[in-house]
Amino acid sequence: MAAIIVEKSDRLEGTVQASGSKNAVLPLLAATLLTDEPCVLGGVPVLKDVEVMCRLLGCLGAEVEGDRAAAQIRVRAKAIRTNVAPPELVKSMRASIVAMGPLLARTGGAGVPLPGGCAIGDRPIDLHIKGFRSLGAKVETGQDENGGFVSAEARRLKGAEMYLDFASVGATENIMMAAALAEGTTIIENPAQEPEIVDLANFLNKMGARIRGAGTDMIRIEGVEKLHGAEHSVIPDRIEAGTFMLAAAITRGSVLVDNMLPNHVVPIIAKLRETGVYVREEFGGLRIDATRGTLRATDIKTLPYPGFPTDIQPQFMAYLATVLGSSTVIETVFENRFMHIDELNLMNAGIEEKGRRASVPGEAALRGARVRATDLRAGAALILAGLAAEGKTTVSDIYHIDRGYEDLTGKLKKLGAKISRL
Ligand code: UD1
């Protein structure tokens, strides 16, 4: 079975490039369903999740062509063959749910099985449904032979004002895409403000949408009759960049993370600095220098953007296990995002979990073990811990890691990590 083998590594050194953002490219691909004209996305990362989204677009009737060397994907959804998403694809990737808004807006209906993906909590879709209903769609949920499903119908969506009880990324994306073709004006109060939302709004605006306020606490969308084709380059992956920042820190190395936007990782920079890591902008990238002084504990609490990202919490926790003093980690975004703790403890991290709060004692003498990537970012955290642990760490269930990291082992190896795939 595929696994990643990591051995204790010296300080990582050199330069690493972040790839295009996984969480940005998935909704961008879904947005191509909103027009019958061709769209071209550049800076696309080579990831399992991207492949799944392309297969989904193909099943719905779009022509999809990828050019790996140019990191480009061209999609033309000239006609939508079916507006019902196949269960096997949706079950393997939760982000498939973002196809629902475009399908509903373009065809007047959409059917999507209840999604799968990383098992980090229940991850309901009530806010997506609330948004579609506010836009005038008739939404039904139920069970069929494949499990749960949600379907929606509306001859033409109608703009509306709505408030999201939680600033959900996926719900904001779905509503923004649906509202782009609705009749009249939509206002989303308390939307997600993540950079991936801004990237999607920029792409939709290039397609002829009229969206303002993406990245703030209110988004205003003037619906238009039709959208056209457009070209767009995906923003760099701030979570992948953050993972490399922590790889430098956990090995006490000095790494330049390139092709990234430092203003997208402000909380990660701030928290690394609090522990004593030296971080500065260099040649448009970020230099992470953890070679000097004693690194000390700090506390982190995850929050929607611009707060500390939940997608970096596991990797940061692995790092905190190695510094002087004890730290507290509080997870507020997902109710079940501590599955990496049991695995890190197999490596002697000694972390204690109480509800959504974890106590990390620090100064752990980490030792290699056989561990399981329980989800995507947990897998990254275990690899980082493996770089700092005595002996050999074998990480299994690495399909989670392949979903969201482009050539993670190759990139770490170039920085000097002792890592290989089995
Ligand atoms: C996206 C990211 C994921 C990241 C997460 C939070 C993608 C493909 N994935 O996931 O990597 O960890 O944002 O930054 O972009 N919720 C509800 N009802 C809903 C929707 C969400 O209660 O209808 C809850 C979820 O259960 C969760 C929280 O809101 O507790 C955040 O979820 P959301 O922001 O929607 O995350 P995703 O879009 O699934």
CATH architecture field of the largest domain: Alpha-beta prism
Structural class: alpha+beta
Number of helices: 14
Give the C-alpha Rg: 21 Å
How much is the average pLDDT? 95
Q: What's the count of strands?
A: 23
Percent of residues in helical segments?
Answer: 25-40%
- Taken together, the total number of domains comes to 2
At the fourth level of CATH, the homologous superfamily of the largest domain is: Enolpyruvate transferase domain
- The shape, in one word, is elongated
Strand content: 15-25%
Say which molecules are bound, naming each kind only once: uridine-diphosphate-N-acetylglucosamine
Please state how the strands of the largest beta sheet are arranged side by side.
Answer: 21-22-1-23
Unreliable stretches, pLDDT < 50, 5 or more residues? none
Largest sheet: 4 strands, mixed
Straight-line N-to-C gap: 8 Å
Which fold does the CATH topology of the largest domain refer to? Answer: UDP-n-acetylglucosamine1-carboxyvinyl-transferase, Chain
Assigned CATH class of the largest domain? Alpha Beta
Short description:
This protein is an alpha+beta fold and 422 residues long. It is built from 14 helices and 23 strands. 32% of the residues lie in helices and 24% in strands.
List keywords for this structure.
binds uridine-diphosphate-N-acetylglucosamine; 14 helices; 2 domains; 422 residues; alpha+beta; UDP-n-acetylglucosamine1-carboxyvinyl-transferase, Chain; 4-stranded mixed β-sheet
